[in-house]
Every structure is written in C-alpha cells, then in structure tokens.
Amino acid sequence: MRTIYQPNKHTPFDAVILGNGDFPTRPLALYLLKNAPYICCCDGAGRTLIEHKMMPHAIVGDCDSLPQALKRCLLRHGLLFFLLYQDTICA
Questions:
Q1: Of 83, 11, 5, which is closest to residue 44 (Cα–Cα)?
Q2: In what helix (H) or strand (E) does residue 16 lie, and over which residues does it extend?
Q3: Rounded distance between C-alpha atoms, residue 5 and residue 3, angstroms
Q4: How far apart are CA 73 and CA 9, in angstroms?
C-alpha cells in the first residue's frame, strides 16, 4: 500500500485544502502550506500553488482553468481528479 502523506512535527494538521482566490501571503499561512504533509487544491488553486514553487498532492475540480499541458502532466502523475457535474452539485 502506498503512503500518500507522512505526518510531520512541523504542523499539527494532516492536510491543507487550498481554494482559488488570493494566494496566502501571511507568514503563518505560508508556513503551513510549505510544511503540510498533504495539500489538496480546488481546481485553479493548484496552478497558483505550482506557480509559487509548491506541488499539490491532489487537484480536484472541473479543471477548466488548467492548461492542457499541465492537465496531462498531473494526470500522468495521478494528481488530478475531475469533479463531474460541478455546476449541479455546487449550485
């Protein structure tokens, strides 16, 4: 069985869920992101996280805001999970 994440002593959290919007800039938020054992991003937040030189463990959403090349790369590495019917679920 593959271990998805390894808890560490740097943060009391098992995971961070990052939503799209303004990227965190405060020191505590950045510290938690950099030390999170598992980061799950909501769609476009994954792209932003990668632009900030951090890699998510999973990206969930309809992925309409991700470039095709990035989608292919993330799919190859098992990091992308499509949420079908997002508009109906979130409406």
A1: 83
A2: strand 16-18
A3: 6
A4: 31
39-87 residue pLDDT tens: 999 888 998 999 999 989 988 888 787 888 888 888 887 777 777 655 5
61 contacts 43 by C-beta, under 8 angstroms: yes
Q: How far apart are CA 62 and CA 65, in angstroms?
A: 8
Predicted pLDDT of residue 88? 52
The sign of the CA dihedral 38, 40, 45, 51 is positive
Q: Rounded to an integer, what distance in angstroms lies between the CA atom of residue 4 and that of residue 28?
A: 24
Q: Does residue 11 sit in helix, strand or coil?
A: coil
Q: The pTM is what?
A: 0.73
